Each structure stands twice: as C-alpha cells, then as structure tokens.
Q: What sequence folds into this?
C-alpha cells in the first residue's frame, strides 16, 4: 500500500477541527485510520471531594454515581458511533423520548449525526425510559450511555 502523507495530514486536521479522537477512511480494500493516540490514554480514578450537606456539589456527586450505574445497567442504550446526539427530529420539535416515557422495540430514541449523516438510534427492547443522560446537540463518543430503558 502506498502511503499518502497528504491524506493523513488532511485527516489529522479534520480530527482537530471536529474534536474527534479517531477517524478511518476506506477506499476499496485500502483504508487509513488516524487516531490521536487514544490507546495511550490512562484513566485515573476521579477525585471526589468530601462535601457537607449544604454543599451544592452533592447533586454532582450523585450524578457521577448514576453515570457509573447506568453504564453497567442491562437497559443502557449506548452510542454506536462518534457524533452529535440530538433528542428531537428538528429544532423546536418535541423530543423523541423523555424520562418516564414508554417505548417499544424499534422506536427512535435519538439521532446521532456523524459525517453529515443522520443516524436514528432505535430501542432494542420495549420498556420505560428511566434516565436520559445526554443533552440535545451534545457530542458523544462510541460507547457513551445515552439513556436507560427498564
């Protein structure tokens, strides 16, 4: 395979411009993957300050705990791609789902825009939405928990 350094530089610039960590382009049986070195990232445990009962940081601590529980929850709906998540089909329209809504398998939950393509994320099972963990137009990474269905 002939290495096209101009294509690699263009992809690296695209990574910086979009805030992505990795991009892969394929043409026939050839592909180029450019990564910001995510394989070298080491996760350190989060430092959680001890808070008094009147400290406004207490809800934030609960949210960290909720995110950890949601990630391992069997009803967690995870992002299958990197992109921008949208909770409604267009600005000003009602959200696809909100906390407390009942959903059926196959219902659209969110849309993730990736490379100018709108990808509907559908419910794999029926149930009730117990948590919505993203905001509208929020960037998401592969594997991020979007919401939880019980």
A:
């Amino acid at each position: 395979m002939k290495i096209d350094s101009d294509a690699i530089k263009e992809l690296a610039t695209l990574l910086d411009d979009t805030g992505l960590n990795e991009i892969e382009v394929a043409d026939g049986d050839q592909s180029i993957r450019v990564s910001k070195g995510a394989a070298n990232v080491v996760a350190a445990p989060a430092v959680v300050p001890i808070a008094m009962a009147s400290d406004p940081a207490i809800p934030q601590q609960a949210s960290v705990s909720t995110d950890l529980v949601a990630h391992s929850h069997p009803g967690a709906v995870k992002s299958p791609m990197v992109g921008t998540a949208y909770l409604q089909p267009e600005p000003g329209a009602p959200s696809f789902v909100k906390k407390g809504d009942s959903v059926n398998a196959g219902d659209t939950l969110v849309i993730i825009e990736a490379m100018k393509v709108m990808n509907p994320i559908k419910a794999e099972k029926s149930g009730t939405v117990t948590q919505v963990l993203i905001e509208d137009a929020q960037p998401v990474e592969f594997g991020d928990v979007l919401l939880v269905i019980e």
